[in-house]
């Protein structure tokens, strides 16, 4: 009533009516004097082409700076903290490149399946649902160059840069899986295709592992391994950075033949139970000279007793304040799709059958072979974590 | 994660465990004669010399037999590492025995540290099968009386209570006593006879631990070496500080010792080197890639070595008054830690390689300047209803003593790695807390994106690595972290490794490790003569100046944080003491 009206529309609707709603809202309900913003949830298309289409349609009615594409992982505490860790701590600065980092792993797992709501998921699959957006966003934040400032555009510029420096994903570097039924004790878990909303012969992957590479001076040759899956044995999202071996290691004889266990590792656990820990080699107290790996550990629940806000709280607040740092820009989205689209097309055209894995297991065995191909061991499956 | 329990030394069940320290140390001993570095030692000559008790450099005809013996020992040591049940090395198993003589057995150190450490080693099966412990002191005591005295201070480790008293009895049965003067060859000859009885004809290795006042060091060494050396094994002498009062007296002491002993027979103890986290310092540096690029002037702004006790001399200041805190703590303990911190990567983990690097870094340092030192002395203080005495209130201390009980110093290493980095040391008695720690303050992030999130105090925005040596061992890395919440506020949080939480086994006392190393001939944790010379060279000029000019210490109240001058010293180099921040 006479105040400066700013309007925010949050579209929580199926993607096929995005454009209609945007058209109507922008034409019929825009703010005259203040700003009008539209928050859009994923999926943003199914591939490069459909995504471009969608963007074109949206831009018939909206400017770039009115479009707020949400990726709610960007609102998670530890994902926000990733940049703080990198850029405000001198101790990490020299380590953040191929010189010191052997590989980076981005891991996502849920411990439940589609639970009768697979119909929607079946159109997209895990790669579109988790990898191409959430995990890729985290990768971009991890690997980007230092931005000019903390401004939204400066940060997003760097993210686009790094995404565009990446090789599109190839079929050789991908493993897909789908969960099958499993009985343990007297409990029986359904398979993905047992879900009545899912077509009987669906080849849609509920698990995928992929190896990505960034072709720039900082990251040349470093495998960025992603792994995402439903109906796995645990619920977790984490970033693991495995560092290289110490050259000319004085303590070689203390490690035995498995030098893989002798490297440092930085783990950022995004969820659950937020924590950051750095695995270092330490002398076991005692009269001998035995080394083991111990954690320099920051457990959020111990350090910050206040409850951590939900990602959506932050994102909504940012949208209201016009802070775009945590929303996906159109060129960013385009770069993200161009990495995955060729692969997705090939998977679907060739009707590649996913490797079946039991509900509640660690996923398909193929994931190990993919990692091994690049001389990597999955850090979350090593059995060492607390 | 499966925690590997600390290595059981010598026990054959762990024979195939490559990670035992004994494995490497035994090998090294065999290799020693072939390895020539900055320091040469002739393993053959020492046996000859000890027998003669002469300072002569000539070698007697007996020498020809010795190489074979030494070689045999060496061969034995090599084969025993490969065969779990083979004949053990010279000081273990059927062929040999170790006799440990604690000279000054009735003293405090012996009761509080040496005997308990020997017992703990025995308890852990780290002592050879055949060993004897002899106490030697002036007071008249029987074996039984010694055992009673010793038993009062023995404890079992918390996690090993079973058959403790039985083990104690077994240990005490091996303890004997001989009374004699420290400067009497006859008495030592009697000791020798007793030792031979217990050794029963085996290859005898003898360790003498000198727990006596420094003015009788040389006499005791002379008598022990001439009258009670081992004829067919090694003889080693552990010496406790003080090693002189300055460069001249230290050099003289070394010279005197070397009339009777070889370099490799002298084991100068600095018990801080046996502390868990000080040992771990090298592990941290050299086995973790993430610390490697950070360890230089490029990333490190300053290093602080802090030691504090929360009690004064408590009526026993008489001895301390001759030395002062600089000689007591700084010139040895803190300087040793500094050397380990700052040294270049050694060629290997061999004792001589490590000690070579330590000497190198010590020799690259500038001698301490008077203007870079602040000294203090605690004065009395009344708080609540309790009154704490001042240093000079101690009856054993001269009324007008200027001896510092506190000192802070800034040292510098003139090499490419550390040029311009202040190494600040601080040591004091009667302060507000009991602590020993190493603090590494890193530089600011250049072009820091988050500048405005930190406010004006950029000092608080840097990383810090803290290694708490005691109490409550821990390592923590202070990093900047986003405070969870809707804002973008940063704070400092710790990536924390708390030993009590991570390692449930009780950490052994430093003396246990050092005694074990002395028995095994592992010299890594003992101070070499050239190392000692270099250490004294850094402090002697300043000490001399302090005493000649009769510099008055700044007085600070008992139980306080120390003299204010320490802050000004730090401020001169743009440093804030990390332990006095609010963030503990």
From TrEMBL, chain A:
<feature type="domain" description="Glucose-6-phosphate dehydrogenase C-terminal">
    <location>
        <begin position="84"/>
        <end position="378"/>
    </location>
</feature>
<keyword id="KW-0119">Carbohydrate metabolism</keyword>
<dbReference type="GO" id="GO:0050661">
    <property type="term" value="F:NADP binding"/>
</dbReference>
<dbReference type="GO" id="GO:0009051">
    <property type="term" value="P:pentose-phosphate shunt, oxidative branch"/>
</dbReference>
<dbReference type="InterPro" id="IPR001282">
    <property type="entry name" value="G6P_DH"/>
</dbReference>
<dbReference type="GO" id="GO:0006006">
    <property type="term" value="P:glucose metabolic process"/>
</dbReference>
<comment type="function">
    <text>Catalyzes the rate-limiting step of the oxidative pentose-phosphate pathway, which represents a route for the dissimilation of carbohydrates besides glycolysis.</text>
</comment>
<comment type="similarity">
    <text>Belongs to the glucose-6-phosphate dehydrogenase family.</text>
</comment>
<feature type="domain" description="Glucose-6-phosphate dehydrogenase NAD-binding">
    <location>
        <begin position="5"/>
        <end position="81"/>
    </location>
</feature>
<dbReference type="InterPro" id="IPR022675">
    <property type="entry name" value="G6P_DH_C"/>
</dbReference>
<dbReference type="InterPro" id="IPR019796">
    <property type="entry name" value="G6P_DH_AS"/>
</dbReference>
<dbReference type="Pfam" id="PF02781">
    <property type="entry name" value="G6PD_C"/>
</dbReference>
<dbReference type="InterPro" id="IPR036291">
    <property type="entry name" value="NAD(P)-bd_dom_sf"/>
</dbReference>
<dbReference type="GO" id="GO:0004345">
    <property type="term" value="F:glucose-6-phosphate dehydrogenase activity"/>
</dbReference>
<keyword id="KW-0560">Oxidoreductase</keyword>
<dbReference type="Pfam" id="PF00479">
    <property type="entry name" value="G6PD_N"/>
</dbReference>
<dbReference type="InterPro" id="IPR022674">
    <property type="entry name" value="G6P_DH_NAD-bd"/>
</dbReference>
<protein>
    <recommendedName>
        <fullName>Glucose-6-phosphate 1-dehydrogenase</fullName>
        <ecNumber>1.1.1.49</ecNumber>
    </recommendedName>
</protein>
<comment type="pathway">
    <text>Carbohydrate degradation; pentose phosphate pathway; D-ribulose 5-phosphate from D-glucose 6-phosphate (oxidative stage): step 1/3.</text>
</comment>
<keyword id="KW-0313">Glucose metabolism</keyword>
<dbReference type="GO" id="GO:0009570">
    <property type="term" value="C:chloroplast stroma"/>
</dbReference>
<keyword id="KW-0521">NADP</keyword>
From TrEMBL, chain B:
<feature type="domain" description="Glucose-6-phosphate dehydrogenase C-terminal">
    <location>
        <begin position="283"/>
        <end position="577"/>
    </location>
</feature>
<dbReference type="GO" id="GO:0050661">
    <property type="term" value="F:NADP binding"/>
</dbReference>
<dbReference type="GO" id="GO:0004345">
    <property type="term" value="F:glucose-6-phosphate dehydrogenase activity"/>
</dbReference>
<dbReference type="InterPro" id="IPR001282">
    <property type="entry name" value="G6P_DH"/>
</dbReference>
<dbReference type="Pfam" id="PF02781">
    <property type="entry name" value="G6PD_C"/>
</dbReference>
<keyword id="KW-0313">Glucose metabolism</keyword>
<comment type="function">
    <text>Catalyzes the rate-limiting step of the oxidative pentose-phosphate pathway, which represents a route for the dissimilation of carbohydrates besides glycolysis.</text>
</comment>
<dbReference type="InterPro" id="IPR022675">
    <property type="entry name" value="G6P_DH_C"/>
</dbReference>
<dbReference type="GO" id="GO:0009051">
    <property type="term" value="P:pentose-phosphate shunt, oxidative branch"/>
</dbReference>
<keyword id="KW-0560">Oxidoreductase</keyword>
<dbReference type="GO" id="GO:0006006">
    <property type="term" value="P:glucose metabolic process"/>
</dbReference>
<dbReference type="InterPro" id="IPR019796">
    <property type="entry name" value="G6P_DH_AS"/>
</dbReference>
<dbReference type="InterPro" id="IPR036291">
    <property type="entry name" value="NAD(P)-bd_dom_sf"/>
</dbReference>
<dbReference type="InterPro" id="IPR022674">
    <property type="entry name" value="G6P_DH_NAD-bd"/>
</dbReference>
<dbReference type="GO" id="GO:0009570">
    <property type="term" value="C:chloroplast stroma"/>
</dbReference>
<dbReference type="Pfam" id="PF00479">
    <property type="entry name" value="G6PD_N"/>
</dbReference>
<protein>
    <recommendedName>
        <fullName>Glucose-6-phosphate 1-dehydrogenase</fullName>
        <ecNumber>1.1.1.49</ecNumber>
    </recommendedName>
</protein>
<comment type="similarity">
    <text>Belongs to the glucose-6-phosphate dehydrogenase family.</text>
</comment>
<keyword id="KW-0521">NADP</keyword>
<feature type="domain" description="Glucose-6-phosphate dehydrogenase NAD-binding">
    <location>
        <begin position="102"/>
        <end position="280"/>
    </location>
</feature>
<comment type="pathway">
    <text>Carbohydrate degradation; pentose phosphate pathway; D-ribulose 5-phosphate from D-glucose 6-phosphate (oxidative stage): step 1/3.</text>
</comment>
<keyword id="KW-0119">Carbohydrate metabolism</keyword>
């Amino acid at each position: 009533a006479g105040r400066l009206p700013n309007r925010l529309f949050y579209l929580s609707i199926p993607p096929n009516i995005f454009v209609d709603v945007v058209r109507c809202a922008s034409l019929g309900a825009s703010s005259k004097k203040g700003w009008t913003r539209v928050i859009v949830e994923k999926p943003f298309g199914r591939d490069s082409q459909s995504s471009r289409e969608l963007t074109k349609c949206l831009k018939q009615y909206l400017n770039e700076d009115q479009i707020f594409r949400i990726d709610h992982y960007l609102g998670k505490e530890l994902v926000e903290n990733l940049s703080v860790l990198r850029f405000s701590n001198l101790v990490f600065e020299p380590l953040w490149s191929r010189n010191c980092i052997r590989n980076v792993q981005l891991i996502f797992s849920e411990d439940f399946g589609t639970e009768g709501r697979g119909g929607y998921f079946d159109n997209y699959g895990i790669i579109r649902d988790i990898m191409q957006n959430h995990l890729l966003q985290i990768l971009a934040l991890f690997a980007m160059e230092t931005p000019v400032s903390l401004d939204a555009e400066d940060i997003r510029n760097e993210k686009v840069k790094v995404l565009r420096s990446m090789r599109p994903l190839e079929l050789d570097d991908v493993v897909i899986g789908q969960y099958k039924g499993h009985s343990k004790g007297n409990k029986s878990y359904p398979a993905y295709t047992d879900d009545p909303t899912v077509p009987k012969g669906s080849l849609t992957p509920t698990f995928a592992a992929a190896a990505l590479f960034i072709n720039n001076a900082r990251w040349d040759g470093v495998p960025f391994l992603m792994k995402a899956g439903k109906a796995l044995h645990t619920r977790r999202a984490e970033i693991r950075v495995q560092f290289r071996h110490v050259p000319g290691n004085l303590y070689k004889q203390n490690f035995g033949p498995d030098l893989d266990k002798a490297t440092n590792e930085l783990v950022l656990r995004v969820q659950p139970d937020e924590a950051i820990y750095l695995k270092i080699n330490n002398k076991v107290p005692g009269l001998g000279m035995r080394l083991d790996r111990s954690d320099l550990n920051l457990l959020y629940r111990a350090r910050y007793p206040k409850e951590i806000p939900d990602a959506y709280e932050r994102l909504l607040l940012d949208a209201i304040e016009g802070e775009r740092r945590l929303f996906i820009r159109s060129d960013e989205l385009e770069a993200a799709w161009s990495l995955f689209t060729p692969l997705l097309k090939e998977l679907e055209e060739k009707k590649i059958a996913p490797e079946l894995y039991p509900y509640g297991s660690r996923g398909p065995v193929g994931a190990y072979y993919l990692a091994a191909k690049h001389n990597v061991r999955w850090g979350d499956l090593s059995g060492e974590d607390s | 994660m499966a925690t590997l329990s600390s290595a059981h030394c010598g026990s054959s069940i762990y024979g195939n465990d490559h990670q035992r320290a004994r494995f490497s140390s035994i090998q090294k001993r065999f290799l020693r004669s072939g390895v020539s570095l900055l320091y040469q030692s002739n393993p053959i000559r020492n046996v000859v010399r000890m027998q003669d008790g002469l300072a002569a450099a000539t070698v007697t005809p007996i020498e020809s037999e010795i190489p074979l013996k030494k070689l045999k020992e060496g061969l034995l040591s090599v084969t025993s590492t490969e065969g779990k049940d083979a004949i053990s090395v010279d000081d273990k198993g059927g062929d040999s025995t170790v006799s440990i003589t604690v000279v000054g057995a009735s003293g405090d150190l012996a009761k509080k540290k040496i005997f308990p450490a020997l017992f703990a080693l025995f308890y852990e099966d780290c002592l050879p099968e055949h060993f004897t412990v002899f106490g030697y002191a002036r007071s008249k005591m029987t074996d039984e009386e010694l055992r009673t005295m010793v038993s009062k201070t023995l404890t079992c480790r918390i996690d090993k209570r079973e058959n403790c008293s039985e083990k104690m009895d077994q240990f005490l049965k091996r303890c004997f006593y001989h009374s004699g003067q420290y400067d009497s060859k006859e008495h030592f000859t009697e000791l020798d006879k007793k030792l031979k009885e217990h050794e029963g004809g085996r290859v005898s290795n003898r360790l003498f631990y000198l727990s006596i006042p420094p003015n009788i060091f040389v006499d005791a060494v002379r008598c022990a070496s001439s009258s009670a050396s081992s004829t067919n094994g090694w003889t080693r002498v552990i010496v406790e500080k003080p090693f002189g009062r300055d460069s001249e007296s230290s050099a003289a002491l070394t010279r005197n010792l070397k009339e009777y002993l070889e370099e490799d027979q002298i084991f100068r103890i600095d018990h801080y080197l046996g502390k868990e986290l000080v040992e771990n310092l090298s592990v941290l540096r050299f086995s973790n890639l993430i610390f490697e690029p950070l360890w230089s002037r490029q990333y490190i702004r300053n290093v602080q070595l802090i030691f504090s006790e929360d009690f004064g001399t408590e009526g026993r200041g008489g001895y301390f008054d001759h030395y002062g805190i600089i000689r007591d703590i700084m010139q040895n303990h803190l300087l040793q830690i500094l050397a380990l911190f700052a040294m270049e990567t050694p060629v290997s983990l061999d004792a001589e390689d490590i000690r070579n690097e330590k000497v190198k870094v010590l020799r690259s340092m500038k001698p301490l300047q008077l203007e870079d030192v602040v000294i203090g002395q605690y004065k009395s203080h009344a708080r609540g209803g309790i009154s704490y005495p001042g240093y000079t209130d101690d009856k054993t201390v001269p009324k007008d003593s200027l001896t510092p009980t506190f000192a802070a110093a800034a040292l510098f290493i003139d090499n490419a790695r550390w040029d311009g980095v202040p190494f600040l040391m601080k040591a004091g008695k009667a302060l507000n807390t009991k602590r020993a720690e190493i603090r590494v303050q890193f530089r600011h992030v250049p072009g820091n994106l988050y500048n405005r999130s930190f406010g004006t105090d950029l000092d608080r925005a840097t990383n810090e690595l803290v290694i708490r040596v005691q109490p409550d061992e821990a390592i923590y890395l202070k990093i900047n972290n986003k405070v969870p919440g809707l804002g973008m506020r940063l704070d400092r949080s710790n990536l924390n490794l708390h030993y009590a939480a991570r390692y449930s086994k009780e950490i052994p006392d430093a003396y246990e490790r050092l005694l074990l190393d002395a028995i095994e001939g592992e010299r890594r944790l003992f101070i070499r003569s050239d190392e000692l010379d270099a250490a004294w060279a850094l402090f002697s000029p300043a000490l001399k100046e302090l005493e000649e000019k009769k510099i008055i210490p700044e007085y600070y109240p008992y139980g306080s944080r120390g003299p204010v001058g320490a802050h000004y010293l730090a401020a001169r180099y743009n440093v804030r003491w990390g332990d006095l921040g609010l963030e503990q």
